[in-house]
Design goal:
Layout (H helix, E strand, L loop, with lengths): L2 H13 L18 E5 L2 E4 L4 E4 L2 H4 L8 H13 L11 H13 L4 E7 L2 H18 L7 E5 L8 H6 L3 H4 L9 E4 L14 H19 L4 E6 L15 H12 L2 E5 L13 H5 L5 E4 L11 E6 H4 L19 H16 L2 H17 L7 E7 L2 E6 L11 H18 L2 E2 L1 E3 L5 E4 L7 H21 L1
Parallel strand pairs: 3-13, 5-6, 5-7, 7-8, 8-9
Antiparallel strand pairs: 1-2, 2-3, 4-10, 9-10, 11-12, 12-15, 14-15
Helix pairs in contact: 3-12, 4-12, 8-9, 13-15, 14-15
Bound molecules: pyridoxal-5'-phosphate (PLP).
Amino acid sequence: MNEDAARRQKAAKDHLWMHFTRLSSYAEADVPVIVRGEGAYVWDDRGRRYLDGLAGLFVVQAGHGRKELAAAAAAQAEELAFFPVWSYAHPTAIDLAERIAQMAPGDLNRVFFSSGGGEAVETAWKLAKNYFKLVGKPMKHKVISRAIAYHGTTQGALSITGLPPLKEQFEPLVPSTFRVPNTNQYRAPLHGDDPEAFGRWAADQIGVAIENEGPDTVAAVFLEPVQNAGGCFPPPPGYFERVREICDEHDVLLVSDEVICAFGRLGHMFGAERYGYVPDMITCAKGLTSGYSPLGATIVSDRIAEPFLHGDASFAHGYTFGGHPVSCAVAMANLDVFERERLNEHVRGTEGAFRGTLEKLLDLPIVGDVRGDGFFYGIELVKDKATKETFDADESERLLRGFLSKALLEAGLYCRADDRGDPVVQLAPPLVCDQEQFDEMEQVLRAVLTEAWSKI
Ligand SMILES: Cc1ncc(COP(=O)(O)O)c(C=O)c1O
């Protein structure tokens, strides 16, 4: 490590508060410092190269080092670095809103920009409550979401989140949110061998929750197309069709939280498109700019926007940096890359090969399940494949925190070993990856998981 890198290493430990991080874990160890990226790879301050198996944090769809995205940001900053969208507009926010409206399913034609995903979720909940007050159903305010699902860290989004360990430190949170089962087919409590029956059952649990709470009090259901936390739970066949029916029956808004799933992660601009449903709102962020600048958006149907179009109605909500001109310019350039390089088509064309390559790992005793869609996979680790027995808290701690994360990184693969549900390794690489990177992921995982097994 050169002198500059050593100084920065110390400064990182002394001054930078890393998110969701046990700061004590760096008391002895170095903080990994990533300095550069190109395509599907990033480099650290010692010159070591890593395959970015998580696209940063489900973000860098178009890959790293895109000069045209950097140039779009620079050009916009020179022209107009900042102006708010509070009562005013600027060209890039207008053009991007129009473009998103054209891409979005159904009549989702109105775009409310924010700075990131949690704010997009927060916006959707507040908008749902405000909408029902305007249409004369003021008691409709509650939210239904799924067990183990992550929806962000602001107090509203965290309340919607279904991960008690993330919430405990901050209770009491915003009241009025309720959890239903997720679509973890591998651990389905019933209908485990019949995806359609399981999907019907899981969707019906939403109806049961709405009825238990009282349909007149429930505003919205928040669901990801593929649930990330817990390790990639795609919807069983018919699930969203049934959820849509239930929501319509009870006049409850369906919010598709696509902070991860939009912009090519599943081979379509939106996950709702892939699974054939039209939500009332879509929340998105991350891949909209491929991370070259931060931006979130809540895309709203004409029906929900309608009561806000008259008289003195106004949604009293906003963020200084929502719809930032530089971020909107970057998003436009990013969407140009999607079109020119046909990134969605690339994902759809190669996802079978990606899945097939990862499924080779099923021959390892520690790999219980490989699941996901598009360029979005979870690999569940088990202690006993036959019984699906999982690791206890101590083993999970030793395996995931103590060994796997570090060993994978040392072997050249940046991805995520996660135990927010059962222990999983998550993969969501940039959408420019091909067979060469699929093989690299499989080989690194094979070697490291084999070693992990020998340590149990
Ligand atoms: C489904 C989902 N919703 C919301 C969020 C919160 O987004 P952000 O971290 O940009 O606030 C995330 C973040 O990963 C997410 O995965």
